[in-house]
Design goal:
The chain contains four helices and ten strands. By secondary structure, the chain is an alpha/beta fold. α1 packs antiparallel against α2 (about 40-50) and α1 runs parallel beside α3 (about 55-60).
C-alpha cells in the first residue's frame, strides 16, 4: 500500500523564511520612522513578525501600510508527476514558493535558467522514485540539499556554492528514491543554446 501524497498547502499555510520575516521587519521600521505607526505598535508588530510561522501570519502586519512591498505572493504550489511520459518545466515560467516533483517512471526536469524569480527562497520537494528528478539552476543561484532523505539512488549536487545577491535559494527536500536527484548548473551545450536564444530575442 502506497502512502497518500499530502495535498499542497494553501498560500497562507506556506512556511515563511528568515528573508520573509526580515523584509516585513524592515518595512515596519520604515513605517515607524515615517510616523505611520507609533513605537508601541511597532514593538507589537515586530514581535509578531519575528515569531511568524506562515505567510498568513506575516501578511496582516503590513496590509494597512502604503507603498507596501509586504510579503511576496508565493503563488500556487506546483505539483509535477513524471508518470510514464515524464514532466518538465522549461523556458519562461512562473515560479511558486513550493514545488513538488515526483519522478515516477518518466522523470521530472525543472529548468530555472530562463525564469525571473523575486522570491528569496523556493522549496523543491523532490522524490526520485523510478526515473529521477533533475533540477537545473543558473550560475549564481545556490541550493541547500540538507533536507533530502537518502534512498537507493544518489543525490548529486554539481552546483557551485557561491550565491549572488538578489538570487533565490533553492531548498531541496524529499527523498532520492531509486533513480536519484540531480541538481546542477547548465551544461556547456545548454549555455550555448541560452546565448543563441538571448541574441534572437534581443534582435526582435
Amino acid at each position: 500500500m502506497t502512502a497518500k501524497t499530502p495535498e499542497p498547502a494553501s498560500w497562507g499555510e506556506l512556511r515563511a523564511s528568515h528573508s520573509d520575516r526580515e523584509a516585513v521587519v524592515e518595512q515596519l521600521r520604515e513605517a515607524a520612522a515615517e510616523g505611520r505607526i507609533d513605537l508601541a505598535e511597532l514593538d507589537t508588530r515586530l514581535e509578531q513578525a519575528l515569531t511568524a510561522k506562515t505567510f498568513a501570519d506575516l501578511a496582516p502586519l503590513t496590509a494597512d501600510l502604503p507603498r507596501s512591498v509586504s510579503v511576496l505572493d508565493p503563488g500556487e504550489p506546483l505539483v509535477l508527476k513524471g508518470s510514464f511520459h515524464g514532466a518538465a518545466r522549461t523556458g519562461r515560467w512562473e515560479v511558486p514558493a513550493h514545488i513538488t516533483a515526483h519522478g515516477g517512471m518518466g522523470g521530472v526536469r525543472l529548468d530555472f535558467t530562463r525564469v525571473e524569480c523575486r522570491l528569496p527562497e523556493v522549496e523543491v520537494e523532490a522524490y526520485g522514485e523510478m526515473a529521477g528528478v533533475t533540477v537545473v539552476i543558473p550560475e549564481g543561484w545556490a541550493v541547500d540539499t540538507d533536507g533530502v532523505e537518502p534512498g537507493l539512488g544518489t543525490l548529486r549536487d554539481k552546483t557551485t556554492p557561491e550565491r549572488l545577491p538578489g538570487t533565490p535559494l533553492i531548498r531541496l527536500t524529499g527523498s532520492v528514491g531509486m533513480a536519484g536527484v540531480v541538481v546542477r548548473h547548465p551544461s556547456a551545450r545548454e549555455r550555448r543554446l541560452l546565448k543563441r536564444e538571448e541574441k534572437r530575442e534581443g534582435g526582435k
